[in-house]
Amino acid sequence: MTSDIDYSFNDKCKDYIVIIMIYQSNIFDVPFLTKLHREFVLWFFTGTKCNLSCSHCYVESSPTNESHPYLTMNTFNKSLQSVIDQQFTTLEFYFTGGEPFMNPDIIEMLHESMKYGNTTVLTNGTKITDNVIERLSLINNNSKFDLTIRVSLDGSDATSNDIIRGKNSFQRANQAIDKLQERSIKVIVTAMRSWSLLKSKDVEDSFIQLLVNRENPLPQSSLKILPPLRIGREIIRDRGYKTDELFTESCFDNYDFSNLQCSKCRMVTEKGVWVCPILVNEDSGRMGDKLEDSFKPYAMKNLACWTCRMEGMVCTND
């Protein structure tokens, strides 16, 4: 086990907090299996800027965070063309941030990605205006591929959600969901498990009721609950990783590495290519300057990788 000291700024208390970052002592390489099965998932990180400052945000997005600047059309187009040239059998695209709908080029990017594969946007929903929905509907209706909008909620009511995501965020996100449904745009509701495991069934049931009791009901399959990633602000909100949350040799005995998203995905940012959206603030997650540089095995050093392996976390819609 190794560790480094990271001086992280806490927006809430306006002070510096010293956090000991623990890294894996047993590091395992995840093979880049896309070379074999020819299926590729390309993530685009639209920038760290966000209109919210969620207390569990693992990339510490906020209205002032510009550590990753907005993804530009130039970078987007180069990366898109690069992956098209690879002639993969299946392509799937995801956009995340920050808040993607703050990026001024997001609609144009979606228009292009929908020419080549199913596309999903991860959003807090509060920036989805009537004009945005009109344009999304036009893109969706004129493509043979599917557009999915994944709206983040962290509680099934305003009280439990807004304490994490900010005042009125529950109401605004639900308004966006209603309007997206009216235009027949697929919606998935995503929540990070911020509650005790002892309460999981009750909380998940309350989320399901939120979905099925809508004017336009959503199926239970539209709910995606993710385990907590104990990096970024989650360290302050709850806790970081414990020293026993480490890989051992037995973790990968006869293990199928295709279960890990990093075996078939990469993420493009304005500052280079990272292995996945979780590690965009971690140097250990950077794979190179260009997409072609990243088509190689990834060494799982960061403890967030432990969550993916041990809790079966998948960032895609699966």
Description:
It is a single chain. The protein is α/β, with parallel strands linked by helices and 318 residues long. The chain has one domain (2-310): TIM Barrel. Helices cover 26% and strands 25% of the residues. The protein has helices spanning 34-37, 73-85, 106-113, 130-141, 158-165, 169-182, 200-212, 234-237, 304-310, and strands at residues 2-10, 15-30, 39-45, 90-96, 118-123, 147-152, 186-192, 223-226, 265-269, 272-274, 286-288, 298-302. The strands form 2 sheets. A 9-stranded mixed sheet has the order 8-7-6-5-4-3-9-10-11. It has a 3-stranded antiparallel sheet with strand order 1-2-12. The longest helix has 14 residues, at 169-182. The radius of gyration is 19 Å and the shape is globular. The model is unreliable at 1-21 (pLDDT under 50).
The number of domains: 1
Question: Largest sheet at a glance?
Answer: 9 strands, mixed
The assigned structural class equals: alpha/beta
**Through-space gap between termini:** 32 Å
Percent of residues in β-strands: 15-25%
Give me some keywords for this one.
318 residues, TIM Barrel, nine-stranded mixed sheet, three-stranded antiparallel sheet, 9 helices, disordered N terminus
Brief sketch in words of this structure:
The chain has nine helices and twelve strands. The protein has helices spanning 34-37, 73-85, 106-113, 130-141, 158-165, 169-182, 200-212, 234-237, 304-310; strands spanning 2-10, 15-30, 39-45, 90-96, 118-123, 147-152, 186-192, 223-226, 265-269, 272-274, 286-288, 298-302.
